[in-house]
Amino acid sequence: MPLQIHSSDPSPSDRRTPASARRLDVQTLVLILSVLAIGVGFIFSYVGAFHDPRLHQDPIAVVAPQQEASMLSARLDGLAGAPLHAVPVQRESTARQQVRNDDVTAALVVDPRGQTDRLLVASGGGAALTLAVEQVLTKVDASQHRSVLSADVAPAQSSDYRGVSGFYIVIGWLIAGYFLAALLGLRAGRGASTPRRLGRRLLLLAPYSIAAGVAGMLIADTLLGALTGHFLALAGVGALLVFTAGAVTVALQELVGIAGIGIAVVLFVVLGNPSSGGAYQLPLLPGFWRAIGNAIPNGAGVDAVRRIVYFGSSGVTDRLLTIGAYGLGAIIVALAWTAYRSRRTARARRPVAVEQIPDAAPQPA
Fold this sequence. Notes:
59% of the residues lie in helices and 8% in strands. It is of the alpha/beta class. The protein folds into two domains: 58-152; 161-347, no CATH class. Strands 2-1-3-4-5 form a five-stranded mixed sheet, sandwiched between helices. α6 (195-223) packs antiparallel against α11.
């Protein structure tokens, strides 16, 4: 009997990589590149927004005799780099109210009989912005051999250093919203949603959002005393932000699966935080971040908190409508897409009726 030798080397077909393994490798590569892109985007967005804060046509009121007001306004508008946009105002009381309503950042009140002017500011709107305006106008007055003294008509609360507490509480509320939505989505699994299950997830967000809004204010108001005197109003803003962040994340997960979590991070963290006007207010940011600031829930939320606490809620409705539009839009998109996908899946699973074909074999006589 001839000796048979069995080779231990796998055949070429055995050495082929299974298709599932190749798909896994591609998915892993895409995941790595996506996370890298988010990290690089984070660096670019934050450094790009904060590396060179400077004023961009920030509106200020100018109170002076008519002829002098026109000349001074023209001088301020013509400053190199266009940091200011002067708005002549006849009465100091009107200018003061505009500052308190956040219609203008500051008001320069010229003393026609002396050499010292007054600058009405609102540090509650952000210390960085107030300081920048003061620096510009101090140089302008110095060039005319005049001086300027600042008067804070809407100061930040004593425990709200530099007016940034609202920024950080908004970040916390948004994190609470999209983290819960992300975890619920991962637990549910890809493609597992039906309109009923999606509805349960959205309904779960509602009491959670209220609890998060109240908890945030218990810390910021009751415990730390950073933002006091507006507990219910700010808790309501917080609940709206938490629910909106959660609903947007849910909708993105329904549309593109787990990648929706990454898109939510890009929206709320990479783009939303640096453009929100928290660390540096919008007039200090470059054009792109300044343009998107109040159009994203982060910026709308930060501005809503500041307007409630320091500006008598002036203009807050527009900010709340922006946040609510994201939440409502996310609900509509998520429900519509899930319903469409469920109908399509149901149609694909329907049994196909097979037409009976008569036997063509000859029948025996």
